[in-house]
Amino acid sequence: MFARDMYQRMWMGGLVVTMLVLLLVSGCGGDGTSQEDSAEDTTTAEDTEQAITSGDSGHAPEDALNAALEQSFAESGAPGVVAAVQTPDYTWVETRGVADRTSEEPMTPDVHQRIASVTKTFTGTLLLQAEADGLLSLDDSIDQYYEGVPNGDEITLRQMANMTSGIASYTFDEQFQEQLFSDPQRIWTLEEMVQIGIEDSPVFDPGTEFQYSNTNTVLLGLVLEQVSGRPIGDLYRERIIEPLGLQETSFPDAEDSSLPAPQARGYTLQGQDDGEPTDTTNWNPSWEWTAGAMISTVEDLLVYGRALGTGEGLLSPDQQAQRLDSFLGDDIPPNTADRAYGLGFGRESGWIGHTGTSPGYNTTVYYSPELDATMVVETNSDIASGDCSDDNPTLADSPHDIPCEEPAKRIRGVLAEVLGQPFGTEQ
Q1: Cα angle vertex 28, ends 26, 32, to 5°?
Q2: Are 121 and 246 in contact (CB under 8 A)?
Q3: pTM above 0.85, yes or no
């Protein structure tokens, strides 16, 4: 969610199962073996490739998904991963690796981690709910709620939600980055963050271009608090978390740097000069706020991802239709017919959802209307692997004969191939 934004990446459901539930937990050593697996793993690279390309190795799609996860996790370089797919016919949940590099505690399906910019989808949902309640209009200008934004009389809440406002992201600011990495326990105020974004604005005239900006979503959080008279954490809980039964999802107070147990410890190279990953688990998340501070688990995100894609339990059918019709066109590059951003979420190759990247964590939550499938991947690292540029550092042993990609996004892409609805070449 944060420094990956510097590289201008666009963005970066209970479990009701009718036929089959596979809850695959980590085995000894953190290799995530299934309860149905044999004691000895005899899978070969040829077996893996065949399973991925055919989508069928005897128990499709579970075996194919397992093989795809095995391959992509090895390429990702992440310490650990929890991956899940849910359709009306089955639920597949698998783990690989470790939740803690020091203790080598294996990754488990129930770990909590920071979901970063997936938070933006929650904020966008609250915005649409507020409009339905008559508290605001998406066509209101931001200067009706917050003074001092350049072009504030022209910038609409809609443009802020779809990232065409021209308001700069405070996370692009080099001084902000230096201060964050030098003191990751610092508690940031909302005014500090917003003012950084304002001082660097405007980037362009409202509605004419696209730039992913966390300042947009922080300002929308302030608007929501103002029109509702409620703290944003209460709104998330009362309007989304409790109605959907998301028992392990939370929005931390600014002073709270902790992660609930069980937790996946996060690792990053961001802000590190020695090339060694640092533990970010207890970095203070106040700087992310409504743009990326939420915490969740894969099980909760399966529920939420489907609700986000269908609107069920969140929005009226008319509102959901409006949201699904909000994706920008190719007249606002880099949006295209295949890959575009809308009201707090994105569409990629028919999948609807969001990616979140924060120091130490990478999360993808996507729903396919065509497949009626929800796919969630969480890794406890944001460190990319592959043939990456100098400004996107990788681990020393990272493979260089594959395209550069963040770990959860790499795994997401391979799983989508198995499901028969691959993402484009640029995920």
Answers
A1: 25
A2: no
A3: yes
Residue ranges covered by each domain of the chain: 3-419
The pair phi, psi for residue 298, each rounded to 5°, is -60, -40
Q: Give bridge partners of residue 379 from the DSSP assignment.
A: 81, 362
Give me the amino acid identity at 77. G
The Cα–Cα gap between 395 and 28 comes to 25
Distance CA 280, CA 127 (A): 30
pLDDT tens-digit map of 116-138: 999 999 999 999 999 999 999 99
Instruction: Give the pair of three-digit tokens for residue 185.
Output: 């326990």
> Measured between alpha carbons, how far is residue 13 from residues 48, 229, 309 in Å?
28, 29, 10
How would residue 97 be classed by pLDDT, with cut points 50, 70 and 90? Answer: very high
Options 3.90.70.10, 2.60.120.260, 3.40.50.300, 3.40.710.10; CATH for 3-419 is 3.40.710.10
Residue 23 belongs to what H/E stretch? strand 20-23
How far, rounded to the nearest angstrom, does the alpha carbon of residue 114 sit from its chain's CA centroid?
A: 9
